[in-house]
Amino acid sequence: xxxxxxxxxxxxxxxxxxxxxxxxxxxxxxxxxxxxxxxxxxxxxxxxxxxxxxxxxxxxxxxxxxxxxxxxxxxxxxxxxxxxxxxxxxxxxxxxxxxxxxxxxx
Length: 106
Prior knowledge:
Elements: H1 2-25, H2 33-50, H3 53-58, H4 62-105
């Protein structure tokens, strides 16, 4: 079992190291922005040629769903803080309810 764990760990390290080596060779981690831009354009060419054009056309523009994301985020934040605000009351309510149930059972 320990051998399998070591092999898995080494494989993960090898994959991560390989990814860093390949991206480093392509100039992704370079401080020269031109090399990074060339690498990005090359990657786009490879990925876009592999992807189906119909799928790419179905991807919405960021501007079209930006407001939806903002309003969803805001409602999530509001819900989270509403829960935090009401939690002391809810904890007290649930505790009293459960205590009363315990005393009724006896």
